[in-house]
Amino acid sequence: MKLNLQFDFLVDKAKNTITLRREFAAHRQLVWDAHTKSELLDQWFAPRPLTVKTKSMDFRDGGHWHYVMVEPSGSEYWGRLDYLKIRPIDNYTALDGFSDASGNINPDLPRAQWDVSFQDLAKHALVQTIVTYKSLADLETVIKMGMEQGMTSTLERLDDLLLTLTK
């Protein structure tokens, strides 16, 4: 059954931001857990047909999540999220970037600050993510890389996971 859930993908070129607002058919605590626990992230945080695997995660202020997205062919795309501030089940901010297998940030690809907030919405949860880039060029680079399509597919995978966890 396909649910009619809110999904906004808003680009503000004046502020170099992408704002994602996404409703999920689950309670806020479960949606928070899916965003902050590696064993759950590993089940959804990649657009189809890629898979994701956590190399290391330390979810705390000053901690990080180092992960790899893997294509069926075996090609790997490494990423690193450095957590700045965490307010459990309400909000976290982090720096997101492409990295290598050792966790070194790739300076040739855009890095962004993510401000992710979680709210109750009746029996559902609403997650708002504001992604801020240093420049318009960085913002345009990720848009050309397929950020909207990738996030759409990735969040649909989260929908699927949440359905299995709420049964």
SSE map:
Elements: E1 7-12, E2 17-24, H1 28-36, H2 38-41, E3 51-58, E4 64-70, E5 76-87, E6 91-99, E7 112-121, E8 124-133, H3 136-144, H4 147-165
InterPro entries: ASHA1/2-like_C, START-like_dom_sf
Protein name: SRPBCC domain-containing protein
Pfam families: AHSA1 (PF08327)
Strand order of the largest sheet: 1-2-8-7-6-5-4-3
Mind telling me which CATH architecture this is?
A: 2-Layer Sandwich
Rg over CA atoms:
15 Å
The main pleated sheet reads as: 8 strands, antiparallel
How do the SSEs run, as a string of H and E? EEHHEEEEEEHH
Tell me roughly what share of residues is in helical segments: 10-25%
Oligomer: single chain
- CATH homology superfamily name: START domain
* Poorly predicted parts: none
Global morphology = globular
Class from secondary-structure proportions: alpha+beta
CATH topology: Alpha-D-Glucose-1,6-Bisphosphate, Chain A, domain 4
The first-to-last residue Cα distance is: 14 Å
Supply the number of helical segments.
4
Strands, total number: 8
Q: What would the average pLDDT be, to the nearest integer?
A: 96
CATH C-level class is: Alpha Beta
The number of domains is 1
| Strand percentage | 35-45%
Describe this structure in words.
Pfam families: AHSA1 (PF08327). The protein is α+β, with helices and mostly antiparallel strands. The protein has helices at residues 28-36, 38-41, 136-144, 147-165, and strands spanning 7-12, 17-24, 51-58, 64-70, 76-87, 91-99, 112-121, 124-133. The protein has one domain: START domain (Alpha-D-Glucose-1,6-Bisphosphate, Chain A, domain 4, 2-Layer Sandwich). It has four helices and eight strands. An eight-stranded antiparallel β-sheet has the order 1-2-8-7-6-5-4-3. The two termini are 14 Å apart. The mean pLDDT is 96.
